[in-house]
Amino acid sequence: MEHGSVLIHDAKLIDGTGGPSRQASVLIEGERIAAVGTEADDRAAQMPGVASFNASGMSVMPGLIDGHVHSTFDNAAGHDELFYHRRPGMAALTAVPNLRRMLTSGLTGFFDADSLYDLGVDLKEAVQCGVIEGPRMAVGGYALMTSVGGAAGRLMPDRGTMAYARMVSGKDEIVAEVRRQIKLGVDWIKVHVTGSFAHRRAEGEFITFTMEELRTICDIAHDFGIPVAGHCRSAKSVKFACEAGFDQIIHGTLMDDAAVDALVKHQAMLVPALTFQANLAEFGDAIHASPVMQDLFRREIESSAEMFQKAFKAGVPLVCGSESGFSVTPYGDWHYREMEVFVKYLGLTPLEAIRCATEYGSLVLRMKGQVGVLEAGRLADLIVVDGDPEKDVTVLGQRDRLRMVMLGGRQVDLGRPELERKPLPEWRTHDFGQILTKPIVESARAAQAAGQSLR
């Protein structure tokens, strides 16, 4: 739908700041919010032909922003798929319907942390230029790793690239790769500060860069005005990354008080991205996932919750991230889920959790002050949902309750059917189990409620 003037009236307005909700109208003119509240009603009354949307009994709020997505992974079931079953052209093509599926779920922006074959930049520009339809994107390129590897450990090569990662060794290679990515057009540099070994998994993740290397990455990136995000799973790695100048800490599990102090001191944002772990821990039985992995992720959430809560109360921006792109977190289904996790495990109120998926989400998009809050002058990225997320954030995951998605003042066509997706040759393996769809979860919840085993 083309830009125009629209008055959304009689809605429960959740503005995204964490403040109290209220009954209010929102007036959109062109791509921006023109007025909110009585001013919106008064201005609309003087505008002949303004479109009107009666949102009685509904809630209007900023569109969701997901702080951690992998848009080119196509719901991969494990590293084997990503390393050996993905081709550049098809990875780009499959991303196109996945981007639209995210948009029609109420997601109006996301951070594409790293991508296969540096495709994120091209996808972002295709969306910006109207070639394809999707949410706003901020993107990283290849994730920087050393020969120690990241989450895949010894599966990573010692040099070169593999799937979503580039191995770097020493200052010269680091400088060259950071400059190459910035020339390409990334919005963030992503670094695997920690990595794990399958044969030493019980010891957790190890820091894989020296402090000098981490500082080099930040110095070069910041010279060009580009922020740096770090995958960190340990207290020491969070402190190292913050001291080196990182702007975003991803995961940040197993922190201690000193790590939280470092986040506060260096003003870094935190993106726990717990949805993957929560889904596997709670519903892994339904997809025949490893009980060992389920227990590992459950303990990781429970042992980290207190420090996440401390960080939030200390003023650290906490951003929702779904880790969408894996079979456990398929696109379009779970972008609300981190809010549910924050409420359940971290003790946040629904309004506080919504702020983590809206106003704070604008930080990963690098669009602070432009999106994430419903107020005059902001870009009109918003959703209308039939229900009350202030009482239950899970209503934001129910597609049949979504009444409007607006991106930059344009209404997204929610009625257009998706094409039937058929299996691609040599594209799938199933290390994590089958794709965790909503019907599987609904059956699992029903079985849990009845006290039945999911196996």
Condensed summary:
The chain is α/β, with parallel strands linked by helices. It contains 14 helices and 20 strands.
Name the features.
455 residues; alpha/beta; 8-stranded mixed sheet; 4-stranded parallel sheet; 34% helix; globular
Give the helix/strand layout.
Elements: E1 5-13, E2 22-29, E3 32-36, H1 38-45, E4 51-54, E5 59-62, E6 64-69, H2 79-84, H3 88-103, E7 107-112, H4 119-128, E8 136-139, E9 143-145, E10 161-162, E11 165-167, H5 170-184, E12 189-192, E13 194-195, E14 206-207, H6 211-223, E15 228-232, H7 235-244, E16 248-251, H8 257-266, E17 269-271, H9 275-283, H10 291-313, H11 337-346, H12 350-356, H13 361-365, E18 382-385, E19 402-407, E20 410-411, H14 438-449
Parallel strand pairs: 1-4, 1-5, 6-7, 7-8, 9-11, 12-15, 15-16, 16-17
Antiparallel strand pairs: 1-2, 2-3, 5-18, 10-11, 13-14, 18-19, 19-20
Helix pairs in contact: 5-6, 6-7, 7-8, 8-10, 9-10, 11-12
Question: Could you characterize the architecture of this molecule?
Answer:
- This protein has helices spanning 38-45, 79-84, 88-103, 119-128, 170-184, 211-223, 235-244, 257-266, 275-283, 291-313, 337-346, 350-356, 361-365, 438-449, and strands spanning 5-13, 22-29, 32-36, 51-54, 59-62, 64-69, 107-112, 136-139, 143-145, 161-162, 165-167, 189-192, 194-195, 206-207, 228-232, 248-251, 269-271, 382-385, 402-407, 410-411.
- With 455 residues, the protein is an alpha/beta fold.
- The strands form 5 sheets. Strands 1, 2, 3, 4, 5, 18, 19 and 20 form an 8-stranded mixed β-sheet that branches. A 4-stranded parallel β-sheet has the order 12-15-16-17. It has a 3-stranded parallel β-sheet with strand order 6-7-8.
- Helix 7 (235-244) packs parallel to helix 8 and helix 9 (275-283) packs across helix 10 (291-313).
- It is globular.
- The mean pLDDT is 94.
